[in-house]
Amino acid sequence: MAPYKSFPEKDQLYFVTSSIAGHQHLLNMPEYAQIILDSLSFLRREKEIKLYAFVIMPNHFHLIVKLPDASNISKLAHDLKLFTANQIIKKLQVNKELHLLDYFEQQAKGIKKQRYKVWETGFWDKNIFSEEFLLEKMEYIHNNPINKNWRLVEERSEYPFSSARLYDKGEEPIIVIDDIRGLLG
User: Fold this and answer.
1) Where are the domains of the chain?
2) CB of 88 within 8 A of CB of 35?
3) What's the rounded Cα separation, in Å, for the pair 78 and 99?
4) What is the pLDDT of residue 123?
5) Do strands 60-66 and 124-128 pair parallel, antiparallel, or not at all (unpaired)?
6) Residues 6+ apart with CB under 8 A from 99
């Protein structure tokens, strides 16, 4: 068996995870998951990130991304969370989801200059330096919806808020992504 290849620093990929504050199940409502999807599409199109894999679960998301040169993963995650939090709050207000607005307001108690807290503080990112680790993280992302703790669908490619459809069936996922297979050896 051929050894897995390593990715040079200029081709650095990142596995990124972030969760809704208090692990509230908000993203199981399609209109809120769509905010994340639209934001990822914008980042891909306008900020030229490469989005290779994603899953949006009821209370968190996972991504595999590659940033353009001189980009910063912390800034990208911060901007993504800030923008989507604002959009989510606006949508909750329009929909008069008072219980959720109250919940996110309670999550922000004690935080200066912040009325609502939609996302958990920080995010988790991990550099992907090898093909082996990339494949492990892709499997993890795509298996999330069929995980015994979730069981959202029978087959992972059936889950609409995931890139598994592209890799399992060759069908376009709900948003355009970049096909990682071009990087694999």
Assistant:
1) 9-182
2) yes
3) 26
4) 81
5) unpaired
6) none
